[in-house]
Amino acid sequence: MPSLNNHASARRHRSFERLAGRTTSRAIASAYDHAGEDYAFYADGEGHEDPSSGDGRFAHGDGIVWDAIRGAIDDLHASGASTLRILDAGCGPGTWLNRVAAYAHRQGGFDIEAVGVDISKGQLEIAHTRVASSNPRDCAQRCKITFLEHDLSDPLPWPDQHFHIVLCNYAVLNHLPRTALPRTIRDLCRVASHCVIVFVRALASPPTGCITGTEQMRDIRQDCRRGELKVLLKDGTEHRLTFNLYSAVTLRAMFAQHAAIADIRALDLFLSRFAADAKWTSNVIDALPGRAEVMGKLKELEERLCRLPAWLDHGTHILIVAEPWTNSVGTTGCGGRTAPGQSPKAASHRRTSHRPACRSNR
Question: Cβ–Cβ contacts within 10 Å for residue 115, how many?
């Protein structure tokens, strides 16, 4: 009977875990629904096709991520691929998928199948509207962009290696329950054939309210032990979001079970801390003697430090570019690495995994 009792107890625990997960998921969806366009402006600024051309606080980090995405697209184009299939897991207002579609279309030769999933119906509605108004007719003929409501705590409904590239940006993985994160990472790697590109809020990152900028917040409280972020907005609404922070070592270990780590680096060690704020003293700061030189030196310093273990946890985000293991012999382009122990090429890749395998355009 003890074994039956243990089995029943385990079932009750899983049932409680699923119920708790649904409750937290609804709270997260409600918060981003409430934020609406404010979230899009906070996270993506003006939504430029090249994010590094913007003057937003996160433009520097977004530009580095964009380099990794463009590099992966360029590799597929060079390999002769005729179709680009890409998933944005936690797509929000669809900014990154719009960028990908526009860039891939300019490359020529691609039919594009892009899918964005998100837990927030409000953000998906914004994404639908933006795609309908931004894609030119000739792009729309060769580009199919679909948005679906989906909770990443649940399995992804696509077969293995269905997408070439899988994206998962900003705090999406931070919002998952701790017990769900390993399963989600496994699933992201499972449905990708070329590479998975994610960036996650770093352990020593500055405070964030996730759904909007600090100018809209009255108070924030982060409970690291419980993994909960409480945000009180100036409109009087309070939002409680699951928000777990992980070390780079922990994240690397989770991804390394399913993929070769092509790159892992800190994003934005210095730039956002020194960035001018348009609502504060930006005009005065930008006019300071030597301002451009200061910002340039900070970028150089970040490039020297960003992949050193002691610095990985101190950026605003951690960027991970992972190439999922496959069961086939050999490699496929920049992704599709053979599982450990099956090929000398994979072993060689692991010895050089501190360098990005997906080439950058910068």
Answer: 22
Q: What is the dihedral of CA 107, 156, 127, 222, to 10 degrees?
A: -120
Question: What predicted TM-score, i.e. pTM, was given to this entire model?
Answer: 0.84
Q: Is the pLDDT of residue 284 over 70?
A: yes
> In the structure encoding, which two tokens stand for residue 128, read together?
């639908």
Listing DSSP states for 119-132 in one string gives S-HHHHHHHHHHHH
**188-221 residue pLDDT tens:** 999 999 999 999 999 999 999 999 988 899 999 9
Round to the nearest angstrom and report the end-to-end CA distance of the chain.
Answer: 64
**Rounded CA separation 211/81 (Å):** 37
Helix count and strand count (H, E) for the chain: 12, 11
Neighbours of 150 (CB within 10 A): 19
Question: Is residue 56 within 8 Å of residue 144, measured between CB atoms?
Answer: no
The answer to whether 146 and 116 are in contact (CB under 8 A) is yes
Per-residue exposure over 207-240, b if at least 16 CB sit within 10 Å of its own CB, e if not? ebbbbbbeebbeebebeeeebbbebebeeeeebb
pLDDT class for 5, splitting at 50, 70, 90? low
CA distances from 52 to 41, 146, 283, 337 (A): 15, 26, 20, 30
Domains, in order of start, for the chain: 26-269+306-351 (3.40.50.150)
